[in-house]
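Predict structure. Chain length: 527.
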Amino acid sequence: MIKIDQVKLSITADDNQIKEAVAKKLKAQIKDFKEFTILKKSVDARKKPDVYFVYSVMVKLNSKLESKILSKLKKDNNVNTYKPKSYRIPLNSREDNSPIVVGAGPAGLFAAYIFALNHMNPIIFERGKRVEDRTVDILNFWETGVLDVTSNVQFGEGGAGTFSDGKLNTLVNDKLGRNKFVLETFVKFGAPSSILYDYKPHIGTDILKIVITNLRNEIINLGGQFYFETQVDDFIIENDTIAGVIAGGKEYHSESVILAIGHSARDTFYKLHDLGFKMEAKDFAVGFRIEHPQKMISESMYGQAYKSMEPAAYKLAANLANKRGVYSFCMCPGGYVVNSSSEENKLVVNGMSYSKRDSSNANSAIVVTVGEREFDKSNPLSGIEFQRDIESKAFELCKGRIPQQLYGDFKDNRLSDSYGDFSSEAKGKTAFGMLSEIFSHEINQSIIDAMGIFGTKIKGFDRLDSILSGVESRTSSPVRINRNELFMSNIKGLYPCGEGAGYAGGITSAAMDGLKVAEAVIAYANS
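Prediction complete.
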């Protein structure tokens, strides 16, 4: 097989034109292609108005012709032998090894899937509801403001990422093919095949819900058991070794417990701390959601070519003189700002897109790094209390409605009374409030300073009628539950896993961490 990189073509090129360009590059005929696969597709918009798609592709020819082509083009760095990465599913050799998985987010689901493929009959506990029922509760919350603290954007099957943009890109190094396996699994259970090669793959919350349902049903078909609306209340520990969990008033025994709780499982963090689990406070980031017209973002990124392309995404970052980092997070093209609260009298927002990304606004979080200047990191739970404090302030600003303020008014410290040239696209009721009262002056000024920088990168980004919504506080877990080289905590047999435990950030990296932990569980059991 041959890999060809840097195949640059018009954004209107179809599959046949891609093949023609590759055949010309290789000085071969399309009829010689035994296999043809797009490996990667990205955008080159550096020389607007000229915008291109850039492809990496794989071609399989007969071995004699491949050798001839590779020899002839050996000085071309964009033509090389292709050796695909294939994830090797670990094989369990013990019949009595049935792990318990706590949490049905991406980390827990993918760990459970590996166990199920090995006929290990995993038991999965999820405090929230299955995704179908959870959706009903969330829509009711957005409409009425009545919160179900166990079934919301943070808690329930699929985890917090289910009601987001469904972004599947990750910066995790993937030498063993885990990322490819995760994406292939999503495709197997209902995602579009384009996620296998798009530079920034996404599927949207509407399709992600279908994928999660199908994955759950496959785990059940392979012998797994799900207990929804069943919170793990305690852990059975004997001689510093896990022996099982207590959930719904019943004991469930296992020598392997995967702790795949989400970043909002605050009560569980406190329980683990009381039980003597080693953990530490970690830095994270807080800020606001910002909305712009999607047309403005797309035109700035792609020029007039935006009319023929999907809504544009962006990624921004600035390192300020005050040693703060400010960056965009969870950017949602054609998306919505959503009320993502999970505790009474506290308010947090997130961003969400459907697969078509067809709302009129773009949004992302603009967040500032926080740590020892905001909370006592010697206390593992101090970051949680910092989050709770700012979420309480956000709730009180507008009595439970999403508080909003135009960026110009935020800069000038005055209350907004109307939108500018565009309105908010939000899920959940909104009201104008003084967002500048939530954070310290230093954090507020950091956002203002960064916005000036971002305005030089994307025309109009710092426009005064940009809409800010508060508060974005759940960018990542405020806690890391320590684990050793065997992926175990200081309690033998308990495996901290995923975003909530502090080892991932986003759907794909959490799923990949679930694979790593499943591998570790099986390797230890086989040893």
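Summary: Residues 119 and 506 are 28 Å apart (CA to CA).
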